[in-house]
Design a protein that fits this description.
Blueprint: H1 14-24, H2 30-46, H3 50-66, H4 70-85, H5 90-106, H6 110-126, H7 130-144, H8 149-166, H9 169-186, H10 192-211, H11 219-235, H12 242-259, H13 262-279, H14 282-298, H15 304-321, H16 324-390, H17 394-449, H18 454-469, H19 473-494, E1 499-500, H20 501-518, E2 523-529, E3 536-537, H21 543-554, E4 563-572, E5 577-584, H22 589-595, H23 604-616, E6 624-629, E7 638-645
Helix pairs in contact: 1-2, 1-3, 2-3, 3-4, 3-5, 4-5, 5-6, 6-7, 7-8, 7-9, 8-9, 9-10, 9-11, 10-11, 11-12, 11-13, 12-13, 13-14, 14-15, 15-16, 16-17, 18-19, 19-20, 20-21
């Protein structure tokens, strides 16, 4: 059968065929790929064929996704979606759902991504488009990971079955990587049988890739298969099969150099370095890690995540050799690239949030336009009915028509006013959402930076070193255990919206006991809790004030005076407030300020806590902070009272 722009054979038009040919060139010649697809899209627009417009738009969107062009990716995905809504062609609707699902996945909107991709998967299954079912099934399995192992396996296995039906090596390799992903995750349990099953599967995968190399467009998938097999050998039963492990890395490196696959090459270097590090050949491992760093820095773009990983491996190597000077030298760039990685992640979160907001905003606007069109159609039908009735009674229908027109005009005015109100409300929501998100991210970033005073960390490590040198092993182990537990709690709590009072008290005890050890037990403490330990409150609010009481109140006391720190908790259930009172018998506010050499300095953690309390004031007007000196009759010292909202 002859195929033309408007006639379909086996469900594929000449325009779609042209778009597919352009899409197939996305790895070898991206410029030619986009040019061919744009020509197909312009032809579909000239022919006013909405189905082909939707399909061409979907292919263009997926091409721009590979090139990381979010703006163009969004534009063509939405173009495909709008064109598909104007047709009843299920193939066009499937392509549009595929493009929109991929867009939502790209901007981390997993829930809507699954809705779109499952819709596309169902439509392509009905159309028996096995190649596309394989691609989408694999993508769905990745979205369900790691939440639902059962669904990950279901869609990955289905993707492989559809890929084998299509007979295309490119799709088979893509689907096998999805299946291999969950097999690789299973090996974490340490079961030797599951490890052997994964190794056998990846060996078969690499053999398929070697056999069908010329038919596989995405060469990076071949390299990834070898990298995954190398990871299995490295993490498998000991001793490691060195010959098989190094053979996989050599093949991965050869493929990466042949096709300029930078990510595969860097992974091969990192795995080889880890292997020699575990083997104890530190100089070889060090050279490999430094080679990876030099290679990455020579590229026109910087992968901060990878650079941080390489420097982290060098730190581990220095720690094993007990070369603390080298450890410090590697720690400086490690912290810098780690911070840059965090900043990039934050920026990406903001960008994705903005993209999701704009996409939802457009969807809301489309719904409003559909409602307006529906209302206009209803008005036309009513007009025709009025005209028919006018034939039977001109005078009566004139009055009826007049009042009806006024009624619908009022409705139209109300609708326009509602639309204007909705647009204003959306603008206000957009501004408020972005401001709140920016404030929250800023506070989180700064809170992470100030979770523990760097001076406290350095002093703690110095104390541990001193105990080890004095051969006081038991005390050093106890101190290190408390320090590790405190660090873990701080990191865990910084990622949580709320914690129980019981957890907060446990963290405070751990911190105060560490300070006691650091200050040679120069003070005692007492925690009096009159509230329910199951109460929920924001994390990391109280510790900064306890730290101030110890550092600025108790620590400067004379050697002859013994310090006392008291922390009391009381619940005001009527106001939904937890009252925390921190009392010390230290030198007092006046004397502490007199001794300070830099009056402009303010504790970062205390400042952030003040800002957090100010934000909480919006939800609970009783939130506040009071700081005062103890009455002269009770001796010297300071009293800090926190009114914390109960969540």
């Amino acid at each position: 059968m002859l195929i033309s722009g408007g006639v379909r054979a086996q469900g594929i038009s000449a325009t779609e065929k042209s778009a597919r040919e352009g899409y197939a060139k996305r790895f070898t010649d991206s410029t030619a790929s986009i040019r061919i697809q744009l020509e197909a899209l312009h032809l579909a627009e000239e022919q006013k064929n909405k189905a082909d417009q939707a399909i061409c738009g979907a292919y263009l969107a997926m091409t721009h996704r590979r090139l990381l062009h979010l703006k163009e990716f969004t534009r063509y995905a939405e173009l495909s979606h709008l064109a598909a809504d104007a047709t009843t062609d299920n193939r066009a609707k499937a392509y549009a759902a595929w493009a929109m699902g991929s867009l939502r996945s790209y901007i981390d909107d997993k829930s809507k991504a699954l809705d779109y991709l499952l819709e596309a998967y169902g439509l392509f299954t009905q159309l028996e488009a096995y190649d596309l079912c394989a691609k989408i099934g694999a993508d769905i399995s990745y979205l369900f990971s790691p939440g639902s192992e059962e669904k990950v396996k279901k869609y990955a296995d289905a993707a492989l079955a559809y890929a084998e039906k299509s007979g295309e090596p490119e799709n088979i390799l893509h689907a096998r990587l999805a299946v291999g992903s969950y097999l690789l995750d299973r090996t974490a349990s340490g079961d030797r049988g599951q490890w052997q099953e994964a190794v056998t599967f990846f060996r078969e995968t690499t053999e398929l890739a070697e056999k069908e190399d010329t038919k596989i467009i995405s060469k990076s998938n071949i390299g990834i298969a070898y990298i995954n097999l190398a990871v299995l050998y490295l993490n498998g039963p000991k001793p490691t099969d060195e010959q098989a492990f190094l053979s996989c890395l050599e093949k991965a490196s050869a493929i990466s150099q042949r096709y300029e696959l930078k990510n595969v090459y860097r992974s091969a270097i990192g795995l080889r370095g880890q292997f020699f590090l575990e083997k104890g050949e530190y100089r070889i491992a060090e050279n490999l890690f430094k080679t990876g760093i030099a290679y990455q820095q020579a590229l026109p773009y910087k992968d901060n995540y990878l650079l941080a990983a390489f420097y982290g491996s060098l730190k581990e190597l220095a720690a094993r050799e007990k070369d603390y000077a080298a450890y410090y030298a590697y720690d400086v760039p490690f912290l810098r690239y780690n911070q840059l990685k965090y900043d990039e992640s934050t920026q990406q979160m903001l960008q994705n949030a903005d993209a999701r907001f704009e996409s939802d905003k457009k969807a809301t606007r489309i719904t409003q336009l559909e409602q307006e069109n529906h209302l206009q159609k209803k008005n036309k039908l009513l007009g025709y009915g009025i005209a028919a009735v006018l034939l039977t009674g001109l005078v009566f229908m004139y009055r009826s028509y007049y009042y009806r027109q006024r009624y619908f005009q009022n409705r139209e005015d109300i609708l326009q006013q509602q639309q204007a109100n909705n647009e204003l409300r959306m603008q206000l929501m957009e501004k408020e959402t972005l401001e709140n998100l920016a404030d929250k991210l800023s506070l989180e970033r700064r809170l992470l930076q100030s979770q523990m005073d760097p001076h406290f960390i350095f002093n703690a490590l110095g104390n541990i070193q001193g105990m080890i040198l004095k051969q006081d092993t038991a005390l050093a182990v106890s101190y290190l255990s408390k320090f590790a537990r405190l660090s873990r709690r701080m990191l865990e709590h910084s990622r949580m919206e709320k914690i129980t009072l019981e957890d907060e008290i446990a963290t405070l005890k751990n911190y105060i006991e560490l300070q006691q050890l650091r200050l040679n037990n120069s003070f005692d403490y007492h925690i009096d809790n009159q509230a329910s330990t199951a109460l929920q409150l924001p994390p990391l609010l109280i510790q900064p004030f306890v730290e101030n009481a110890i550092e600025h109140g108790l620590k400067p006391l004379a050697d002859t005076q013994y310090g006392l720190l008291t922390v009391r908790f009381n619940e005001q259930s009527d106001d939904h407030i937890l009252v925390c009172t921190i009392t010390d018998n230290g030198i007092g506010l006046t004397e502490s300020r007199r001794r300070k050499t830099d009056d402009s300095h303010q504790s970062l953690s205390t400042k952030i806590t003040d800002e957090r309390l100010l934000l909480m004031l919006k939800d609970n007007p009783h939130t506040r902070l009071e700081v005062r000196e103890q009455p002269a009759t009770d001796g010297q010292g300071t009293i800090v009272t926190l009114y914390i909202p109960i969540i």
